[in-house]
Amino acid sequence: MDKLRFENRHGIQLTGTLELPPGGEWRATALFAHCFTCSRNIRAARDVTRALARAGFAVLRFDFTGLGESEGEFADTSFASNLDDLEDAARWLAGHYAPPQLLVGHSLGGTAVLAVAERLESVRAVATLGAPASPEHVLRQFGSGLEQIEEEGSAEVELAGRSFRVRRDFVADARRHPLGERLARLRRALLVLHSPVDAVVPVGEAQKIFVAAKHPKSFVSLDDADHLLSRSEHSTYAGNVIAAWAARFLELPAPEPAPGARVRGLTADGFLGSVQAGPHALVTDEPADKGGRDLGPDPYQFLAAALGSCTVMTLNMYARHKKLPVTRVSCEVTHRRVHAEDCADCEQRDGHIHELSRVIAIEGELEPAQRERMLQIADRCPVHRTLEGEIKIRSELAEP
Prior knowledge:
The protein has 400 residues and is α/β, with parallel strands linked by helices. Helices cover 31% and strands 24% of the residues. The strands form four sheets. An eight-stranded mixed beta sheet has the order 1-2-4-3-5-6-9-10, sandwiched between helices. A three-stranded antiparallel beta sheet has the order 11-12-13, with no helix packed on it. A hairpin with a 2-residue loop joins strand 7 and strand 8. The chain contains eleven helices and 15 strands.
């Protein structure tokens, strides 16, 4: 996660955060637009962009002019200036990494990415989260202040517990950007995510967007999420869905295969790392109580998973070969360190040893003797034999 600054077309310094995949190697770039009067560090922005990063995207989220840590005055901004900021952010991405193929926007940020997409030739897919079908919808949040703005030219309005000065130009500009025609000529894949219980932007706005756009388009319900996606389970789920959906429409280079497993980690990311096992991409981390962010299994959980998966494969293969009435095998593996003197069948008699405990469940109408035989077969799984055999680990430094 890198904090950065770049200039927009008016010379104003905007502040952004670049989320990179664990290990730093990205497959495509994406741009995220935050909600109205929010900042790039709101939970939804953090969780969605981090989920995209774990899926291989380099994602830029930034504060619009006058918000968060960006320079400028919010009162001088408009929906049109937000579109300019997005275009300038895309230009920065193109100059430092690659032009964005994916745009993601939350609330009014979603409306903005829909409007700016036609300016950016590199964009192939657009995803919105709780977005209104028109920027004019945001004017409803001004309440009685809207009348004062129109009569006096500006007014202080309270939004999300903070006071902002809004001018008549902002109101007029919001009314000048209907999205109907733009959506009809979007020519990008569209994913609309919206909660049916959104109390700020009704789900009917999502319907307007979806109906106006042409295929390919998809809709995903965010169930009981609130408008700000304030619970990580909702915002992370949204990010994972967007990543899986977008991969169908983007030009993503295939990850370089690794003969065994290749693990990379950025020093600044703490324990977070990317695992490339053949064509398969995974994430490893440590739990929060050990200084990590708990974004993936820790190394010992991977070890337990290796033994458990090999056990299940071996027993299912044996059941098929012997034509046993087995429907499913499951294996739960736990790891712990125990005192050697407490282990009756261990050769080592002092210090600590590592113990892997395996509980195997076999579903099917089997005789007790058949179950016992399958338990014996479990000890023959290749990973089990590897762990109990002599293991040599040889290390060398790669060429710089």
